[in-house]
Amino acid sequence: MPSWDEFQPFIVTGLALGGVYALSGVGMVVLYQTTGVLNLAFGAVGAMGALISWQLINEAGWPDWPAYLVCIGFGAVVTLVYGVVFGPPLAGRDPLIKATATLGLALILLGAMSWIWSDKARSLDLPTTQEEAFEVGTIFVNWTQVIALALGVVVTAWTTAFLRFTKLGAAMRALATDREITATLGVPVRRVEASAWLVSGLLSGVSGLLLSNLVGLDATTLTFLVISSLAAALIARLRSLGVTLLAGLAVGVVNALATPINSISEYRDMAPFVLATIALLWLSRRREISFARAGGSL
Q1: Cβ of 221: how many Cβ atoms within 10 Å?
Q2: How far apart are CA 84 and CA 189, in angstroms?
Q3: Residues 214 and 148: beta-carbon distance below 8 Å
Q4: Rounded to the nearest 5°, which phi and psi values hold at 135?
Q5: Positions in the chain whose pLDDT score sits under 70
Q6: How far, in Å, CA of 206 to CA of 47, rounded?
Q7: 20-40 pLDDT tens trace
Q8: Helix (H) or strand (E) holding 258
Q9: Which of 158, 133, 136, 134 lies closest to 22 in space, CA to CA?
Q10: H-helix or E-strand containing 192?
């Protein structure tokens, strides 16, 4: 078993990754609550945006920041276009069919990335990583890790306030409750849904940019890191943004802490599934107990 000092750097890495998982989870929860679509293409969109950014910087000679904005803009545009074109036909379909449709988009993008960029190793070094790291106790921390964690917290808090205190946020919450009644009240359903797709796409682009630096610029890896974000969203039962944040941090830290333990390090990718399963079983148990008590009081 590694010593505490050996674990400490992995805690920092886990918190940074957890912040991005939370960021992605918030985008997935908001979209699901508004449209009923579980976006399984979230990771693939971010991955392709990051690869385009790498191409612009290393092959086309673009300055860094415009290329980063292209990454974020790519996520926003692709997700919005998909939502506008396929969202209405899928609106009345089962959630499983909606999720399968986004899985198709993920596979198309993954195939395109494999064809265009093949499997060559690449890295996208953000300026915040290239800057000198600072020391917290005995641990060195770079600014990309700080930004990843901070963005997860800030975006969760901002989105919660947005949904609670703004007119558009109230419309999104109304759609989550009942789409048909909301439409009869004069709410522009298509416009509200398009806003949810746009927000989800922006977060996808930001997440892809950060993850490409934190874990490496590999199309397959980034595409399937959506599983960790999905686990965080499922632990929150696709409802609570605050729980999504905490779950994302937990998934990131547990996954990272398993890395230095040789006996389980090769199984660390199972951490999101294990945590999500335990949380859902615990929540189901509590719900059954509550129903039993309610029935007994009758």
Answers
A1: 14
A2: 12
A3: yes
A4: -105, 130
A5: 119-121, 130-132, 137, 283-298
A6: 10
A7: 999 999 999 999 988 888 899
A8: none
A9: 158
A10: helix 189-214
Here the tokens at position 76 are 């926003």
The tokens for 282 are: 């615990």
What does pTM read for this prediction? 0.89
Record the tokens describing residue 23, joined without a space. 């960021």
* Structural contact between residues 161 and 173, judged by C-beta atoms closer than 8 angstroms: no
> For the structural domain made of 4-297, what CATH number should be given?
1.10.3470
- Sorted by where each begins, the domain ranges of the chain are 4-297
No. of H helices and E strands in the chain? 13, 2
DSSP letters spanning 58-88: HTS---HHHHHHHHHHHHHHHHHHHHHHHHH
Check if the beta carbon of residue 134 is closer than 8 Å to that of residue 141.
Answer: yes
**Which two tokens mark 174?**
């109304």
CB-CB contact of 160 with 27 (8 Å)? no
